[in-house]
Design brief:
By secondary structure, this protein is mostly helical. It contains 9 helices and no strands.
Length: about 220
């Protein structure tokens, strides 16, 4: 396994693909997961032949997955911006977690369950970091113009700024990849919850802005 680690660590594809990619699951992540799965399968078959009660043997799974977690974190700095970096980490961590889902049939593989829980914790952390890095500045625009202002032109000017920031963020990320359907759906819901719901509340608190949006003179997102 050490030779595999060295091969993956030194692969030039990291530096070539990460700055130009869309945050998708990297080929080296898939390769490492395939290697780990093959080793586990071989060890499990050997253990079963010797002692059926040890059919869920995991070997050095935890150490290898921890290495892969650290490797992804180190290589992620090659991504072109913080938002893409966290999306890359989220996609890859989620892929690894799904690859090592424990069987629901007894006996429960406690080591495999522990590994998956740690990966799921990584996913939650990276999702929060992605949302903050990508959409935090958009939400801050909403919070600025959500406070009542004296001059109508000030509100509409701030609304235009929000629209500009929103669409700029959307355009920058529309080709980024979230291949796993459940994760993609969760991200969409969280973005809507953080951005659209706050925006809707702001319109309800500022009738003049609501009229401006209803008149079709703005390019605000649909709510």
């Amino acid at each position: 396994m050490e030779k595999v680690r060295t091969l993956v660590e030194d692969d030039d594809l990291w530096a070539i693909e990460l700055p130009q990619g869309g945050g998708e699951v990297h080929s080296n992540t898939r390769f490492m997961v395939d290697c780990i799965s093959s080793i586990r399968k071989t060890k499990t078959q050997a253990s079963t032949a010797e002692n059926p009660s040890q059919s869920h043997h995991t070997g050095n799974l935890r150490d290898t997955v921890d290495y892969l977690r650290g490797l992804l974190l180190r290589k992620s700095i090659l991504c072109s911006d913080p938002s893409l970096r966290y999306l890359f980490l989220l996609n890859n961590s989620n892929f690894i977690a799904n690859a090592f889902e424990p069987s629901l049939s007894p006996p429960l593989d406690l080591e495999l369950w522990s590994v998956r829980q740690r990966l799921k914790g990584d996913c939650e952390k990276y999702m929060d970091s992605y949302l903050d890095a990508s959409w935090g500045h958009v939400i801050s625009c909403i919070l600025v113009f959500s406070r009542p202002l004296i001059h109508r032109w000030s509100n509409t000017s701030l609304l235009a700024n929000f629209e500009s920031v929103f669409h700029k963020t959307y355009q920058a990320q529309k080709f980024w990849k979230v291949p796993e359907p459940h994760l993609r759906n969760s991200l969409r819901k969280d973005i809507a919850k953080r951005v659209i719901s706050v925006y809707r509340d702001c319109l309800e608190e500022n009738p003049e802005l609501q009229k401006h949006v209803n008149a079709g003179t703005s390019s605000s997102p649909d709510v």
